[in-house]
Write a structure and sequence with these properties.
single chain, about 575 residues, DNA polymerase, domain 1, 24 helices, about 45% helix, globular, binds 2'-deoxyguanosine-5'-triphosphate
């Protein structure tokens, strides 16, 4: 798949255009939009181009003639001349450097011009030699922050977001299944467990023609190079910057192999110990009794758990966090399922930093069979996100009223806002504006470096004000990029329980916030959760599954998640 590579090139073109004195403001934006469109496409751009040509490409949101032609050029020649020209002028690794918190194209260029920094390696050296603190506009504080940014990046090295890994795995599986060479192909490992980041993909295949399968895999357009190729296991490096193990197994061992390669390792170790206690040997080939007979031959995973005296454990729970003990006692939670979801309470439109009109978001939600959605654009403190004033919110609500008339019987659009919780714990909108909302989402975006005590008090004040219904992305982290805020979560969850404030599970693959561990902690307080996509464009409404996966990793059941409720019940919950 060229999608990921192209998206990266467009991002870099945008970075470089931002430095071009005679480029308009619109140009870099257009390339960034195109990058987002392409990276979230389900289909390979090559396939779109082959089927429908330039016109097919131009039908994609945010892709005009210039960019469609650039895609064509890349497919045909492997190069984009605009990229080459700019790159000759700015020989800098923007992709690597922009991953560091606090570094945008302009600052990167400054570092290049004054210190010759071209990549991460150079940057690290400049920090060690204390050359950055001497630079005007940087100083000692910046130098230390860049150092921290590099540490964060190193800690996450090589792990790719679930939001990128899962669609890639699905694409590979689709191709394998359509190759005519395989009977079955599934994804296992951390991807199947819906872990927020993935170290490598693990794909399991049944086939009578393993050699041909491996030939087929190594030639796929997703593959950058082959790491090892063998008849039972092949490892390839994918264009998206992730390695992938493909294993071909015997038909009779498929269930056992699926159980084994789904992991986690810790879960498997405990399960194997249990098997030994019961007189069995468990491995990727089967479950063997004392006479070495595979009792799980031709059986599925469910059989293995049952044979060991356990209830079936869903993949998202297999982390050795107490699930095996519960399965023995038949006390496992019945996990929430994506089909339980009825609404989506957090999304943006062009009224703040979203890419689509409210109506486009509504149509997209109808396609997903949502019974209701909540429009929740930003409030005024979020200048960069084009946040709205009190007056603008009133017009926003008028537009929602009109759309509710238009879509009556099809979907209900709820009025909300992602309202900034200021430094002192107050909101940046008037009470009269908040009262016009069906429910209020509070969020922290500014002054995120407060001390733990100050931050806790700020959030507690917002919770106890009784003006807020949902706390958005409570931890405020961006996976691999921005650390979570510091706060006393026990106090916050306790107050949330007392004041009926709902904790969000933001389903955006960069956020997944609350994360699994925090959900496990929060659920003990008996509070409720809302799984929201925080969509900024129509195609992001499908992020719901990542939020549901995270909720399942946090052991949540349907009745702990408010957006599984029908419309009337959810309105009642919000006090209407
Ligand atoms: P990742 O790739 O770091 O995101 O995490 P996983 O869980 O996908 O780990 P990976 O790819 O190393 O291995 C896939 C599965 O194979 C793992 O979840 C469980 C199984 N596995 C791997 N190594 C071992 C092992 O040494 N013992 C046991 N019992 N299982 C293992
Ligand atoms: Ca893996
Ligand atoms: Ca692996």
């Amino acid at each position: 798949m060229y999608n990921a590579k192209l998206a990266e090139m467009f991002e870099e073109i945008a970075d470089m255009l931002e430095l071009e004195p005679n480029a308009t403001k619109f140009e870099p934006l257009a390339y960034r939009r195109a990058a987002i469109t392409i990276s979230s496409l389900q289909e390979d751009v090559v396939d779109i181009y082959k089927k429908e040509g330039i016109d097919g490409l131009m039908k994609l949101p945010g892709i005009g003639k210039t960019i469609a032609n650039a895609i064509k050029e890349y497919i045909e020649t492997g190069k984009i001349s605009k990229y080459e020209t700019l790159k000759a002028k700015y020989p800098i690794d923007f992709l690597g450097l922009t991953k560091i918190q606090g570094l945008g194209p302009k600052r990167i260029y400054k570092l290049y011009v004054s210190l010759g920094v071209k990549n991460l390696e150079d940057l690290r050296k400049a920090i060690t030699e204390h050359r950055i603190r001497m630079l005007p506009g940087f100083g000692e504080k910046s130098e230390k922050e860049l150092e921290k940014g590099i540490e964060l990046l190193e800690a996450s090295k090589g792990r790719v977001l679930l939001g990128e890994a899962l669609p890639e795995a699905e694409d590979l599986i689709k191709k394998l299944l359509s190759s005519g060479l395989v009977d079955k192909a599934v994804v296992c490992g951390s991807t199947r467990r819906m872990k927020e980041t993935v170290g490598d993909l693990d794909i399991l295949v049944i086939s009578e023609k393993p050699l041909e399968v491996m030939d087929y895999v190594t030639k796929l357009s997703n593959v950058e190079h082959v790491i090892v190729k063998g008849p039972t296991k092949t490892t390839v490096w994918l264009n998206i910057g992730l390695s992938c193990d493909v294993r071909v197994v015997e038909k009779g061992s498929f269930g056992s192999a699926m159980q084994y390669f789904t992991g986690s390792k810790e879960h498997n170790i405990k399960l194997r110990e249990l098997a030994i206690k019961k007189g069995y040997k468990l491995n990727e080939y089967g479950l063997f009794d004392s006479s070495d007979k595979n009792v799980a031959l031709n059986q599925d995973e469910h059989f293995i758990y049952e044979k060991l005296g356990l209830d079936y454990i869903e993949p998202e729970m297999r982390e050795d966090r107490g699930e095996i003990e519960l399965a023995i006692e038949h006390r496992l939670p019945k996990l929430i399922d994506i089909s339980d979801i009825r609404g989506d309470l957090h999304m943006h439109s062009k009224h703040s930093d979203g890419a689509n009109e409210i109506e486009e978001m509504v149509l997209s939600a109808i396609k997903l069979n949502r019974e209701y959605i909540g429009m929740s654009d930003h409030s005024k403190t979020e200048h960069v996100a084009n946040g709205m004033s009190d007056e603008e919110f009133l017009k926003y609500f008028d537009e929602i009223d009109k759309l509710n008339d238009k879509f009556e019987g099809k979907i209900r659009i709820l009025k909300s806002g992602e309202v900034d919780i200021l430094k002192d714990g107050s909101f940046d909108l008037r009470d009269s504006t908040l009262e016009k909302m069906d429910y209020v989402i509070g969020a922290i975006h500014t002054n995120t470096n407060m001390s733990k005590e100050e931050m806790t008090n700020r959030i507690l004040k917002a919770i106890t004000s009784n003006k807020m219904n949902i706390l958005a992305h409570p931890m405020g982290r961006l996976i691999n990029e921005r650390k979570p805020i510091e706060a006393d979560w026990d106090k916050i969850f306790e107050a949330a329980k007392d004041h009926n404030v709902i904790m969000e599970i933001d389903a955006h693959p960069k956020r997944l916030d609350l994360n699994d561990e925090m959900i496990l902690k929060a659920r003990k307080y008996g509070i409720k959760f809302s799984i929201d996509t925080d969509s900024h464009r129509t195609d992001e409404l499908s992020f719901m599954r990542f939020g549901v996966g995270t909720a399942r990793r946090g052991w949540l059941e349907k009745d702990q998640v408010i957006n599984t409720l029908p419309l009337d019940k959810i309105l009642k919950l919000f006090g209407h």
